[in-house]
Amino acid sequence: MSDTALMEAAERGNLEGVKRNFNQVGRKDGYGWTALMEAAMRGHADCIPLLEKEIGIQSNRGWTALMNAVLNGRIDCTRLLIFETGKQTTKEWEIIICDEIVLFPPGTTALMIAAHQSHLEIVQLLFPYEQGIEDSKGNTAKWYANKGASWRGDFTRVRQLLESEGTERLPPPDPELLRLRGRIKELTTENDSLKKDLSSSKNTLEETRKELSQSNQEVSSLKQQLDNAIEESKRHAKMCEDLQKASDQNRALTTEKAALQEQPIKTIEDLKRALADQKAQNLALEKEVVQLRTESHDMKDLRIRLEEVEEEKKVLLQNLAAVGGRLPPAREDSSLISSAIQGDLSTLRRHLDQAGQKDSSGMTALMHAASRGQTEVVRLLRPLEARLQDGRGWTALMHAVGGGHEECVGLLLLERDLRDGEGRTAAEHAVDEKMRKVLVHQPSFPRLPDSLSGYHLTAVLGRGAFGDVYAAHKGGRNVAIKVVSLGGYNVEGRELLRREVEILPSLDHPNIIRCIRGEENDLDSTYVLVMDLCCGDLREEMSRRKKANSSYSDQEVWKTIREVAAALAYLHEKRLVHRDLKPDNVLIASDGRCVLTDFGLTKVLGDSSRMATFAGTLPYMAPEIHQGENYNKSVDVWALGVVGYELCTGRLPFSNVIAIAVEEPPVIEGRGELAALISRMLSKDPKDRPTARDVLEEAERNKQAD
């Protein structure tokens, strides 16, 4: 049987549709699914009371609506379907969860599913009713917690809760409770409505009292106005006498006016002559304007011809170079430009001091790279040469649009507001409809404090855990601006943001992101940080290497470890612990230098030099953090060891949280001293790990001359 109209309405959460098709309650599709199961799986809790007659029905594999709600983490639906606890599946079922195939055998319960998915709140809710139940293989919920999705949810607390799993269980609640809850909700709503009506009546009474008081005041005012009118009448009689005197004076003035009206006749004749002279001057001026317009049109033709000549010159120079001739000096000296044209990144980095130079046509290295679709060159040069324009007023973005290079266009959106010499934007250069839509769409930018109003936001660079990052420019300088809204954070979250704002400006190290300026905007409750603009991050670089099947050499790994260790050693000597070191938080500067960023979780060490807060990103967190123990600055060294392992092997050293605590990582093959150092950094005991300074010194000893 196919889906019924009731099932489709429940799947969409359409309450009116559910009520309209209520006569289909109890029907199943070909897999034994009901409308209640559809609503529970998608979290439409408001549909469940309407479908209560389907509570307890199981699908062809024995799954209930409760199990579907639990699998998808629907806590509100789980509370309403608690009456289905105690039921077990009847057949085996393979499900794909986060790209992994998970097998649930017969006898699976809702508690086992919640434990596997690490849904702590749901586990707490189902535990009294389903603890101790075994599936067809003799496994309980505790077994599912240890073998489940350890990267999601609160795995540690779920595991601790199920340590006390026994066999005594409460019976499932009576479904009648659902109807009683619904009736209680209706009565509560009705009671709230009555309270509002009573409050409204009280307000109306108070307003009536105020109106009565106001009316009394108006009556008193009218009495005063009447008294004033009587006094005014008396003054009016006196004014009549004065008016009669004024009338006599007016008659005398009228006689004088008649005598004066004869004099303007001569003056009008003079004005007519002056008007004729002015018309003659206007005609002369109009002829002069026509002549100037003709000359202006000729100048425009000359400019157009000059641009055509420049284009022809550029083509001739390129042809000359192709047949072995010599290029003009401006082009010969620009090694940066020639490296960009060839896409030679290593040579390009050696000539970054030439950034901003132009060839004979006014094009920069970034423009040449964009016109040829050299994505990595564009990514490298964007912070240094973005928003420059060539002789025609074209930007690098316009060159990328003209060449149809979509990836380069995405990197250069911070130039989309600029216009060329003819007043056209990059969107007006686009021929492809898809590309035009990308360029025309203007993102909404936040308002900056008045003290930073000189910075102009041009593009969104990324979304971070503690704020959004935008490209901006001021006075020809390109920067990154991080804007964090405090509206969506609790007290703890706001404290983390204030910590980053306070810490960043105080740091001065070549391998730590430089904060140019920081401001708090009280008007819209935001923090604003102005920072250097970098080319990308280590995560993006690792992903590109993996797609290209290109591994890191030993010296490349040593360089990354050396530069990040230098940043950590600097932080640790200032009694600061980063606590969230991962490839995403290591930026790549234009000169290839690694730069540590994102200090939202950074902690200042107290007198004890130890901490206990659960913080960080799971795959990069040291075992002592996962186990709830106190920890110190060595957790940063562990995280750097995980990053180093990834650079050497292309994969994480541990598959899940349990492996971090109890297993040793697979041995790194063929990396010599590098593998030995990373192994020490990943020691389970913090005392056995080297310090950041030790790592830096060993990396310096393995540094090769450029």
TrEMBL record:
User: What Gene3D superfamilies does the record tag this protein with?
Assistant: Ankyrin repeat-containing domain, Transferase(Phosphotransferase) domain 1
A GO molecular-function descriptor: ATP binding
Please give the SUPFAM superfamilies that the UniProt record associates with this protein.
Answer: Ankyrin repeat (SSF48403), Protein kinase-like (PK-like) (SSF56112)
Q: Where is the composition biased (Basic and acidic residues)?
A: 191-212
This chain's protein is named Kinase, NEK
Which keywords does the record carry? ATP-binding, Kinase, Nucleotide-binding, Transferase
Annotated spans, Disordered: 191-221, 685-706
User: Origin organism of this chain?
Assistant: Giardia muris
